[in-house]
Write a structure and sequence with these properties.
about 20% strand, alpha/beta, binds glutamic acid, Rossmann fold, 14 helices, globular, about 400 residues
Length: about 400
């Protein structure tokens, strides 16, 4: 796999080459403030001792405490976590919330662990990173394969609820946080469609059927768009007449995958990316569209709910094909925006309504979209580079160097 951190640094350089950003700022953003790697010894249910490796990267806190999720994934490594922490720094700045960027991860396949083992691993990780996190220092959240329940174990282990976001509501979580990433991406989709004058009669393919992808599928379906393909890590399904998302959710719960759904054709994840659709939503992992398959993409609009799903080479190819890409650092920022609200609610001991949360988030997302769009027009660059420029300008104002 292409190194995600190299991709992230290529994106940074590209923004720096175009806009009038100081060399010192680019240098500061070319390495994280701090990272730690920890070994987490876990007694498995069988009695066997296993050692897992975990990471926390604190990238930049010029604009506020480090903020970002913790992922549990078998392919997670330091390079990935560094890239994700850097993207969090850019993302929080794109939407103008006063937070910096961080990220964590454990190299593990959580599907192979029992619930008790998962809890011991989550608590064990917090014991190891305890000295460097805190409500005004570094505030973790969920990411790929981590859940509100995992956040509640972690917050309990740490002993302070304002140090974690994405918790269950009854443990101090915010209304709307569970759907926030997809909800925010939906606002961005509607803004982009209006700008590009794409009418509502569209077909969408969605890669990834986890928290972001499955909720996004439901939202677009409710809005009257046709979802013709979805996929998960095992593969995808396609029906040109449109899929019943609620039925697929139950099917996945029962069988463990979206595949073999009655009336739909099984397809590979690779094929899903090349379908003749109007919109392609990417809600899985990094490096999904690369120089090898970018030319085959037929969608006119790409919505990045995942972090880093396109390589810099793919960006160039898609730009030439006039495919508009709504980049991760803007599109999936609804998640961290509602995390910011959760943190504020915890600190002030408040509980906001879902309507309140959603309308505040919508306002932030739509404003950020307009700012990024204007920046893209000003510099004649793609939306990703525009988002980076906007974010780095804000960071530059706060840098203490
Ligand atoms: N993991 C999410 C992201 O990549 C959310 C982070 C957060 O809420 O802190 O944006």
């Amino acid at each position: 796999m292409q190194n995600p951190y190299d991709n992230a640094m290529t994106q940074l350089k590209k923004a720096g080459d175009i806009a009038n950003i100081k060399k010192d700022t680019l240098l500061k953003l070319s390495s994280p403030d701090r990272f730690i790697q920890v070994s987490i010894p876990i007694r498995m249910d069988s009695g066997e001792l296993k050692i897992f490796t975990g990471y926390r990267v604190q990238y930049d806190n010029s604009r506020g405490p480090y903020k970002g999720g913790i992922r549990f994934h078998p392919d997670t490594d330091l390079s990935e976590v560094k890239a994700l922490a850097f993207w969090m720094t850019i993302k929080c700045s794109v939407v103008g919330i006063p937070l910096g960027g961080g990220k964590g991860g454990i190299t593990v396949n959580p599907k192979e662990l029992s619930k008790a083992e998962l809890e011991r691993l989550s608590r064990g990780f917090i014991q190891k990173i305890k000295p460097i996190i805190g409500p005004n220092q570094d505030i973790p959240a969920p990411d790929v394969y981590t859940t509100p329940e995992i956040m509640s174990w972690m917050a309990d282990e740490f002993g302070n609820k304002a140090t974690f976001t994405g918790k269950p509501i009854e443990k101090g979580g915010s209304e709307g946080r569970g759907n926030a990433t997809a909800q925010g991406a939906f606002y961005i989709l509607e803004k982009a469609m209006a700008k590009l004058e794409i009418n509502k009669d569209i077909k969408i393919a969605i890669q990834g059927f986890g928290n972001a992808g499955a909720v996004f599928a439901k939202l677009v379906k409710e809005a009257g768009y046709q979802v013709v393909a979805v996929s998960d890590s095992k593969g995808g399904i396609f029906d040109n007449d449109g899929l019943d998302i609620a039925a697929i959710e139950s099917h996945k719960k029962e069988t463990g995958s979206v595949q073999n759904f009655a009336g739909a054709e099984n397809i590979t994840n690779e094929k899903l990316l090349e379908l003749p659709v109007d919109v392609l939503a990417l809600a899985a992992l990094e490096n999904q569209i690369t120089k090898d398959n970018a030319k085959q993409v037929k969608a006119k609009l790409i919505i990045e709910l995942a972090n880093g799903p396109l390589t810099p080479e793919a960006d160039e190819i898609l730009k030439d094909k006039e495919v508009v890409v709504c980049p991760d650092v803007l599109t999936n920022a609804g998640g961290v925006t509602v995390s910011y609200f959760e943190w504020q609610q915890n600190l002030a001991d408040e509980h906001w309504t879902e309507e309140d949360v959603n309308s505040k988030m919508k306002e932030i997302m739509e404003k950020a979209f307009d700012e990024v769009w204007e920046t893209a027009e000003k510099y004649q660059v793609i939306l990703r580079t525009a988002g980076f420029i906007k974010a780095i300008e804000r960071i530059e104002n706060e840098l203490k160097i």
